[in-house]
Design brief:
about 260 residues; 6-stranded mixed sheet; globular; 10 helices; alpha/beta; Rossmann fold; 10 strands
Length: about 260
């Protein structure tokens, strides 16, 4: 039996008297694309924030490769191999595209002050490796022509790709995408779907995403969790989700 790369068990998150996440459980398997959908206010982003270390859950358990991560700060979670994007692109907009990718690798570079001042062989090797990794992801994301452009001056779709590249350059085990199609035009959404599939098949990363674009999430996800008012109401393959009466009611209401 394949061990899930991520297991969320009976996750709860309370804000005062509000139970924003109410006993949510799901597993993400290696190389899987797992989608979380639901109406606005369903608690999807709160689940993401608990998994990513931005919130400390009120109850429940979060396991990454079988090891507990709930309650860890976000930078520790990232070091364990779980990284995320946000609804609003968060780049270093005054830095160039290349500089954004180099900064993302700071944990992997020999950055001691003495090593930098002396330009030690180890420091030089780390710098060369960081440059090579940046070049690899510039090519993979088709961003090579923008290498010296300030990130804030990129078109929005290219900013999205750079943000994903900045996550992937850290060599994560699980990539979390928070509404990656937001603000993209139809062609960019098609390109995004192809990119997510490439990340899963070519790079071997599992993907957990929140998305409102139903054609994208149904077309790319292996499995989907549906939430409403903080509670899970359905989980299954896309075809089952599309035909689930509780899901239809949650999105369309009933007479």
């Amino acid at each position: 039996m394949i061990q899930p790369i991520l297991s969320v068990k009976d996750l709860c998150m309370r804000f005062g008297g509000l139970l924003a996440v109410d006993h949510v459980s799901f597993d993400v398997k290696p190389h899987q694309v797992f989608g979380i959908i639901g109406p606005n206010g369903a608690g999807k982003t709160t689940v993401f924030n608990c998994i990513g270390g931005f919130y400390k859950p009120s109850d429940g358990q979060i396991l990454l490769e079988g090891k507990t991560i709930q309650g860890m700060p976000s930078h520790k979670v990232a070091q364990k191999g779980l990284v995320r994007t946000f609804q609003n692109v968060r780049l270093f907009k005054q830095l160039t595209v290349l500089e954004n990718l180099l900064v993302a690798q700071h944990q992997h570079i020999n950055t001691s002050l003495l090593a930098g001042l002396l330009k030690t062989p180890g420091y030089k090797r780390s710098e060369d490796l960081a440059q090579a990794q940046a070049a690899k992801w510039l090519d993979f994301m088709d961003l090579r022509q923008y290498v010296n452009r300030e990130a804030g001056n990129l078109a929005y779709g290219h900013q999205r790709r750079l943000e994903i590249a900045r996550c992937m350059i850290t060599q994560p085990k699980l990539l979390m995408l928070d509404e990656p199609a937001a603000g993209l035009n139809p062609q960019e959404k098609r390109d995004l779907q192809q990119l997510i599939d490439q990340l899963r098949t070519d790079m071997g990363v599992a993907v957990l995403l929140i998305e409102h674009d139903m054609s994208l999430v149904m077309g790319i996800s292996d499995e989907i969790l549906v939430m409403e008012y903080g509670k899970p109401i359905a989980v299954g393959v896309p075809n089952d989700i599309q035909n689930n009466p509780r899901v239809i009611k949650a999105y369309l209401g009933e007479e």
